[in-house]
Design goal:
MacB_PCD, two-stranded antiparallel sheet, single chain, 2 domains, alpha+beta, 486 residues, transmembrane, transmembrane helix, cell membrane, 6-stranded mixed beta barrel
Length: 486
């Protein structure tokens, strides 16, 4: 019986010219879907590998907050820059738990803050630009972020002050090792200011001049603690509170700290260039800072595919122990850049699905017309004893064969398109595109997962298109079918 059904279904498909139109449409849709997802698969892989090895790691533990915190802080437009990042509570417990996880490789704590960076070249105008400062332990950070390479200078020893800048920042503003840069952070109606030397220039993989990576600078954690007033006695604050933190003010008496060093305290801004402040020479002048307070813990795993399991493990530990922290993946840690890529993928896939739904209506109507044209044939089959289920099964096999063959042709077409794209050697010079695609060239490859889902979608399309025609067939009365057969 099955063999007979397949033979009849195949005969009906071949005998109708409209079958070619249906197969062509579904094939085109499957090819479009597979190529689009192949591009985004390679893009996401490139961005993930670049970001994970450069600054996000595989898992990031962040303070729990009512705003979504990335490693850059609160990226909410307009209001985000006025919020502060709370510190991680019970940091030692969090780090110990992370180290005891399966697939743990390494970790590094981090502070983060937005500051205004100023460079005063000899005989030139001051260069001022905002940067995201990551306060880190240099040796430990560069061992975890193994894609970073020092191209000039050397990393400072533990306890030494200094800043490491990316090669794109060094080239853009003309600063290098040995130059003094100055940071300023708003503190109410005044500013906190620090100056440190550039000790190293490093490079990121696939980072253009205007990419998010080029806006990162690495500084010793002690300097950033002083700038952000993160130290002993500082209580965690809720994200979304003003940058001027009352608890931090209670912990530090700024008037006492800067007695005899007014150059560090600017009461009002000036349009004229202000020369850099002198670096502190005496260790006794620097307030005692608590080195156990951090904003984030960045974790690398020996197997990055186990990130979801590690995140679930850590979050379960936090819930059961009442720790106000949460573990997230690289996408949430990277912030808006990775989020935009994800949204772009969703939008394009939604557009393709809308096209397919519109095409589904056309396919459905075509199949209904074909069924009505076969009323005589159906009447004959019903007259010689064919059951309703037999007729329904014949319609299902027809649409299933159409969808399956279209899915195969679509995947073949998509593979050919990807091969043509790869052979064309499409490269990018725009910094945003380099950052978006994770590399300087476009490389596409249809993965097994993409092929499976594309084929499954084609078959689903055929199954949906089968429902209405089969219902139309079964509504035809046997008397009407026999009358048509005369």
């Amino acid at each position: 019986m099955l063999r007979t059904l397949l033979r009849i279904s195949f005969k009906n498909i071949v005998s109708r010219k409209s079958s070619a139109v249906i197969v062509a449409f579904i094939s085109f849709a499957v090819a479009l879907l597979s190529v689009t997802n192949a591009v985004f698969d390679s893009t996401e892989k490139g961005v993930r590998e670049s970001f994970s090895a450069s600054f996000t790691g595989d898992v990031v533990v962040r303070p729990k907050s009512f705003v979504s915190l990335s490693l850059f802080g609160d990226e909410t437009p307009i209001t985000g820059e006025f919020t502060s990042i709370p510190i991680l509570e019970r940091f030692s417990e969090i780090e110990e738990r992370a180290r005891n996880m399966r697939f743990f490789s390494s970790c590094v704590p981090q502070l983060s803050g937005r500051v205004l960076m100023e460079f005063f070249p000899d005989g030139g105008n001051a260069a001022r630009f905002p940067v995201h400062l990551f306060g880190v332990e240099f040796a430990r950070y560069f061992s975890v972020m193994d894609s970073l390479s020092v191209v000039e200078g050397a990393l400072p020893a533990s306890g030494e002050k200094g800043i490491a800048i990316s090669d794109s920042v060094a080239a853009k503003f003309g600063c290098g090792v040995g130059d003094i840069v100055q940071f300023s952070v708003a503190d109410g109606f005044s500013f906190r200011i620090r100056a440190v030397p550039v000790v190293a220039v490093y490079s990121y993989p696939s980072a253009g001049g205007e990419s998010v990576l080029s806006k990162i600078a690495l500084v010793d954690d002690g300097t950033l603690r002083e700038l952000l007033a993160v130290g002993a006695g500082t209580e965690p604050s809720d994200a979304g509170s003003p940058q001027e933190d009352e608890n931090a003010g209670d912990a530090f008496d700024f008037e006492t700290i800067f007695d005899g060093a007014e150059d560090f305290f600017v009461e009002e801004s000036s349009e004229e260039d202000v020369p850099p402040v002198e670096m502190q020479q005496e260790e006794s002048e620097i307030p005692e800072i608590d080195g156990g307070t951090w904003h984030f813990l960045v974790i690398k795993l020996s197997d990055s595919s186990k990130a979801s399991s590690a995140i679930a493990n850590l979050n379960s530990f936090f819930r059961h122990n009442g720790i106000s922290a949460e573990a997230v993946g690289w996408r949430q840690a990277a912030g808006s850049t990775a989020f935009y890529l994800y949204i772009l993928r969703l939008v394009l896939n939604a557009g393709i699905i809308i096209i397919l739904v519109a095409g589904l209506i056309v396919v459905n109507n075509t199949l209904v017309v074909n069924v009505l044209d076969r009323t005589r044939e159906i009447g004959t089959m019903r007259a010689i004893g064919a059951s309703r289920n037999y007729i329904r099964a014949e319609c299902f096999f027809e649409t299933g064969m159409l969808a399956s063959s279209a899915g195969v042709f679509g995947l073949v077409l998509g593979t050919l398109i990807c091969a043509l794209v790869n052979s064309a050697g499409i490269s990018f010079e725009n910094d945003f595109l380099i950052q978006l695609f994770g590399s300087g060239s476009l490389v596409t490859e249809i993965s097994a997962g993409t092929a499976f889902y594309s084929f499954a979608f084609a078959f689903f399309l055929g199954a949906v298109a089968w429902i209405h025609p089969s219902a139309v067939v079964l509504r035809i009365r046997l008397v009407d079918a026999m009358t048509s057969a005369k």
